[in-house]
Amino acid sequence: MAMQRTSPATGYETDFALWAQSQATALRERRFDDLDLSNLIEEIDDLSKRDRDAIRARMTTLAFHLLKLHYQPERASGSWLGTIVSRATRIRRLIEDSPSLRHELLDYELTAYADARPRASAETLLPIEDFPETPTAEFTAAFRAALAGEDFGGDAIVREAKANRALIG
Description:
Layout: H1 16-28, H2 37-71, H3 78-97, H4 105-124, H5 137-148, H6 154-168
Helix pairs in contact: 2-3, 2-4
């Protein structure tokens, strides 16, 4: 079924799904004069930003849970470990889909840590000063191991915390 010819920007502001469908149809049919180039360019730029934002958000959540794990191991839960594993897995999948973003991971790592610090402080009720301004070597190693899908030490931290609880309780 052929789409009706409309002005290129028709629908972008009022019905995005219809607009996107009409733009795809115009591309497939090579009707380049019917393309809404300015909005298409904006949307393509946003696709790249979307992946970057998704990686940053997941890295921040990963850093947040690792900070909680390292600073309050006695409260560690399977949920924390599961979140660390699932966020790291999703980050790896995003990098597989967009390998050019791999070179940005170091910058994201530092930003994720900086963003996770105040959240970790708020949730653990520990003073922000307890969390170093820059990641420790131990934290960086655990963070990178989690990202690589390797042992980040979570199980060992949980086992040690449980043993300490058994000694106390």
